[in-house]
Automatic annotation (TrEMBL):
The gene is ispE. InterPro entries: GHMP_kinase_C_dom, GHMP_kinase_C_sf, GHMP_kinase_N_dom, IspE, Ribosomal_Su5_D2-typ_SF, Ribsml_uS5_D2-typ_fold_subgr. The keyword Kinase applies. It comes from Parablautia intestinalis. It is an enzyme of class 2 (transferase). This is 4-diphosphocytidyl-2-C-methyl-D-erythritol kinase. The lineage of its organism: Bacteria, Bacillati, Bacillota, Clostridia, Lachnospirales. Catalyzes the phosphorylation of the position 2 hydroxy group of 4-diphosphocytidyl-2C-methyl-D-erythritol.
Length: 290
């Protein structure tokens, strides 16, 4: 096999709670992760090794992203090839579609695609667990992205429990034209003094019962306490989604992307038009759970 292509899907958080800040600076989280139908495409081709060392070449169709070690794709490829002693080289191309620095784990999902892609290209026989164990070294969300689907994520994000997928629904996803640094959000979150916590256990139960109402009724993200204060546009987008028929709307991850859940594609389509007209977000998508 000389070429492998993988889709790297974006995620949203149906619920996101932060339990505490650990002494090492990491935050202990409790989140419900969900894959959605927005994806990047990565292609992997065997290349030449350089003086007995693996040579990694990365080309990206977005000017915003680096092609060197600054890119999680590069870092994941290097880690895998060093760990498994791969002597050949690899040429990787990325077609970027997931909004960048948006709270949709685009970079982590690309890194996860590298695990699957190189596993197949070089016949490495990594199990899902092998990939996840190595993947966490690249980022806390990478182990989840390696498995995808619906999952409860605990610890720093590495303790994963698969959960039943939600009933089908339409999603409107909108990213306002602002960049939110994940670091800024967590640094300004006072996890110990949070007054309200989303009912993540209730959300998991609603998922197991297949109740869309139970899910939408429990959507909550404690990181909104930081981002909405600084960027009121996030609140505005949520309000517009709800005013245009969403069962509920929430910021994903550390933001600024907002998603709304709709019971029909037509409703989501109408809300898309309303959102486009108001000009608060340039990147808008109608999609579904994957
Ligand atoms: P999360 O939801 O995990 O917080 P995010 O969606 O907020 O992630 P990403 O799009 O994954 O953020 O990227 C955050 C930063 O990581 C970007 O500013 C970018 O420079 C860097 N980065 C490195 N590699 C990638 C990649 N392959 N795709 C996107 N961003 C990348």
């Amino acid at each position: 096999m000389n070429q492998v292509t993988r889709k790297a899907y974006a995620k949203i958080n149906l619920g996101l709670d932060v339990l505490r800040r650990r002494p090492d600076g990491y935050h202990e989280v409790k989140m419900v992760m969900q894959t959605v139908g927005i994806f990047d495409t990565l292609t992997f081709r065997k290349g030449q090794g350089k003086e007995g060392l693996p040579d990694i070449s990365l080309s990206v169709d977005s000017k915003e992203l680096p092609c060197d070690k600054g890119n999680l794709i590069y870092r994941a490829a290097e880690l895998i090839m060093e760990t498994y002693g791969v002597k050949e080289g690899v040429d990787i191309t990325l077609k970027k579609n997931i909004p960048i620095a948006a709270g949709m784990a685009g970079g982590s999902s690309d890194a996860a695609a590298v695990f699957h892609g190189l596993n197949k290209l070089f016949g490495l026989s990594m199990s899902l667990q092998d990939m996840q164990k190595l993947g966490v070294k690249i980022g806390a969300d990478v182990p989840y992205c390696i498995m995808g689907g619906t999952a409860l994520s605990e610890g720093i994000g590495e303790i994963l429990t698969p959960v039943a997928a939600p009933p089908s629904a339409s999603l409107l996803i909108a990213k306002p034209d602002i960049n939110v640094s994940t670091k800024f959000v967590y640094e300004n979150l006072h996890a110990d003094t949070l007054k309200e916590h989303p009912d993540i256990d209730g959300m998991v139960k609603a998922l197991q019962e297949g109740s869309l109402e139970g899910i939408t009724g429990r959507m909550g993200n404690v990181l909104e306490t930081v981002t909405i204060k600084k960027y009121p546009v996030i609140r505005q987008i949520k309000d517009i989604m709800i005013a245009n028929g969403a069962e509920n709307a929430l910021m994903s991850g550390s933001g600024p992307t907002v998603f709304g859940i709709y019971t029909g594609k037509e409703r989501a389509g109408e809300a898309y038009k309303a959102m486009e007209k108001l000009g608060l977000a340039r990147q808008i998508y109608v999609t579904e759970f994957v």
